[in-house]
Amino acid sequence: MVALVVVVALRGEGGDDPARDPFVSPVARAAPDCGGGDLVADDEEPAVAGETTYLTATLRLAPGVEPCTVRRFPGVVVLDQGVPADVATVLDERLGEPQELVVLPDQPVLVTLGWSVGRYCEGVDNDGIILRVAADLELEVPGFGPTSCPAGGAATPPVRVGPYTYVDPRSTNGTVVGVVVLVGGPGLGTGEFVTRGRLELDGPDDYGAAVGPDGDFELEVPAGVYQVRVSTPQWHAGRPYDGGTLSVAAGELNQLNVILPAH
Fold this sequence. Notes:
With 263 residues, the chain is mainly beta. 7% of the residues lie in helices and 43% in strands. The strands form six sheets. Strands 1, 2, 3, 7, 9 and 14 form a six-stranded mixed sheet that branches. Strands 15, 16, 19, 22 and 23 form a five-stranded mixed sheet that branches. Strands 6-5-11-12 form a four-stranded antiparallel sheet, with no helix packed on it. It has two domains: 30-161, Immunoglobulin-like; 173-260, Immunoglobulins (Immunoglobulin-like). The protein has helices spanning 2-14, 26-30, and strands at 39-43, 47-49, 52-61, 68-71, 75-80, 83-84, 89-91, 100-103, 109-115, 125-126, 128-134, 137-141, 145-146, 159-161, 173-182, 192-193, 198-202, 206-210, 216-222, 224-231, 241-248, 253-255, 258-260. It has two helices and 23 strands.
């Protein structure tokens, strides 16, 4: 109780002023917003997961520049042969937690973008992406390349824009294990294991695993929030069952047991 009172008192003294907040480091309090010439960008090779291609840009301090602050999301402009294209973008908090971060000499920030380039049907040769960090600070990184369109397609998925992060949101995985059970087994209330079928986790990307003969499954996925779906010929002739949502924590064993209802 005493510790709680002390914390509340300190917060009250600091108020909403970062310059007085004792929970904000001196470096963060002193770091101005990043502006023209403060940052340079490195790029990484694209990574493909399912139908999505990901690009991660690393933003570093330019030589001789003092620490500065970036806030939540960058603006993004998609280029088509060097010219701004009419490609929609959408902010995606599944690619990181939006916050204010200080760029330090030994601590760059990352921005991750995702795009289904193989399903974009308006013919864009995306040779570059402009990251608008501030009104006077724009950084260009290589783009996703030419888009393509499946036969008979008409989709135009937006580019998903992640917030500034210190860690690549797709590099931290968690393991999901569990069993799938049918209600109403050979003994009253005991249920029985599903012996065949598939469990799917739908999120920024979709992942799945076969259900084993003992109802068990295991798969490794990036940390995040997923929609759980199960299908098996043992339940309603394979109709998918909506198992709700699952939050997968990075570096942990995440337990998921699915009980298929009788009706």
